[in-house]
Amino acid sequence: MDSVVVDVEERLEKMLKGDGLEVPDFNHLQAVTLKKSVCYIVSAVIFNPEGKVLMVQEAKRECYGRWYLPAGRMEEGESIHEALRREVKEEAGFECEPITMLLVQEQGRQWIRFAFLAEVTGGSLKTPSKADSESLQAQWWDREPPLPLRSRDILCLIEAGVRYRQNPWFPVSHPVNLPCPVVCQRLLLIFSCKERLWLLLAENTTDSESRVCFPVTVSEKGHSIKYAGNRLVQECMRTTNPALNVTVHGILGLQHDGRVLGQTDGICFNTLVSLESSEDGAEIGSSPPLLNSEKYVWCEVTNQSLKGNILKRIKERSFLPITNNP
What we know:
Layout: H1 3-16, E1 40-46, E2 53-57, E3 67-68, E4 71-73, H2 80-92, E5 94-106, E6 112-123, E7 137-141, H3 155-166, E8 183-193, E9 196-205, E10 210-213, E11 216-218, H4 225-236, E12 244-256, E13 267-277, E14 296-300, H5 304-316, E15 322-324
Parallel strand pairs: 1-6, 5-15, 8-13
Antiparallel strand pairs: 1-4, 2-3, 2-7, 5-6, 8-9, 8-11, 9-10, 9-14, 12-13
């Protein structure tokens, strides 16, 4: 089998498993910096054996006395998991371990929230006697008597946690510890027709070699992260049939490593994207759209197991959801 096809299939399998891949060289771009050009937030959905959800009472002046999930901004040099553990300990008194990411919400690179389903592994519930600037107290909430909430935006996170515990609809997902200097999206972009499936690949040229890889596009300030993928499609397929839509199905995995301050604060979102008909019954052709750049090429997936995995994931919507901030 051609070595290029083998390499592509190996990387495809890694992406479908939620693993990470090295990002291209972005030396020509300024690295994003936490608290300056990017803001990452973690939040925890934690249930006790009776199904009650952990809530904390806010100590901040603007929302004093109201209730919210344990949540807060990431600090410099932290991993996403480390930030989650710190926030839960500071605000609720518990030590915890993440079970899986539940949802990613974004408002462009300036506001990204990672919601986790997590479990208590130690510590004790924070009582009013331990009130501080982080929180006034914590308590378990059965969601029946109303609480004065800081914001109702956490209700969808709690519901996602309830749903995942009952019937996990995507594989367990955790951030992969790989560095990235910018916020970007790696596209596993597919076109399928009549039981055939193609992937869009990009040529990545360095001083020593040239190889094909999955295209990576950088998020622009002021735009949704998902916009980057749409922009890439427009750039490489300007002759695309207008009956085609770009659909971002969800996240296969994400990569972050903030240990080198100011140089690796970025995140790479590995997403599955497809070109689909924008109208019912619209004729989209039996082969992928023509490309207008030699940097890109279509590669047909002939490995039946990999092709079946992709189509099954799409049918079952088995992806970590990414949504715009409500």
